[in-house]
Amino acid sequence: MPFKQLLTNLVEAVPGATGAILADWEGEAVEQHCQGDPFEMKVTAAHWGILLTRLKTLHEKYAAGQVQESLITTDEQHAIVGAIGAEYALVMTLGPQALPLQALRSFREVSGLLEKEIY
User: Fold this and answer.
1) Is the C-alpha dihedral spanning 13, 40, 36, 5 positive or negative?
2) Residue 10 and residue 28: Cα distance in Å, rounded?
3) 48 φ, ψ to 5°?
4) Which region, left, alpha or beta, applies to residue 78 given φ > 0 means left and ψ of -120 to 50 means alpha?
5) Alpha-carbon distance 85 to 68, whole Å?
6) Cβ pair 66, 17 in contact under 8 A
7) Quick check: helix, strand or coil at residue 42?
8) What is the pTM of this model?
9) Which of 6, 7, 37, 45 is close enough to 20 for a disulfide, judged by CB 3.0 to 4.6 Å?
10) In which element (H, E) is residue 78 found?
């Protein structure tokens, strides 16, 4: 299934989701689907991708295993950031009213499908 369709399905399946983007290891957007400004989504992905890269280095320092994903909550949104293999990241944004742990299930399903498509 094409990346665009997977991301669209993810956003539309999760109540309160505002966007999803697949980015490469440099933070460049590969594909996205969002309900707001596409440029803002790209900037969001780049910043959360940097954080994911930092978190991935933790497994080298501590015996905690590989970082799979991270859920970040701010005053205005929730963001789920996850690794797709070693070179890609999936970022999903949710409005403050969304239930992020419910979204995590769909996020994990799409992460697996993206990984199969890429690798």
Assistant:
1) negative
2) 20
3) -70, -30
4) beta
5) 9
6) no
7) helix
8) 0.91
9) 7
10) strand 78-84
Whether the predicted pLDDT of 50 surpasses 90? no
Host H or E run for residue 93 = strand 88-94
At 19, is the secondary structure helix, strand, or coil? strand
The predicted-structure confidence for 11-45, as pLDDT tens digits, reads as follows 999 999 999 999 988 888 999 999 999 999 999 88
Domains of the chain: 3-118 (3.30.450.30)
* 20 neighbors 36 (Cβ within 8 angstroms): no
Token pair recorded at residue 94: 């949710």
The CB density around residue 33, as the number of other CB atoms within 10 Å, is 21
At 76, give phi and psi (nearest 5°). Answer: -110, -15
Are 60 and 50 within 8 A, CB to CB? no
Answer for the pair 114, 90: CB distance below 8 angstroms, yes or no. Answer: yes
Q: 88-94 and 78-84 as β-strands: parallel, antiparallel, unpaired?
A: antiparallel
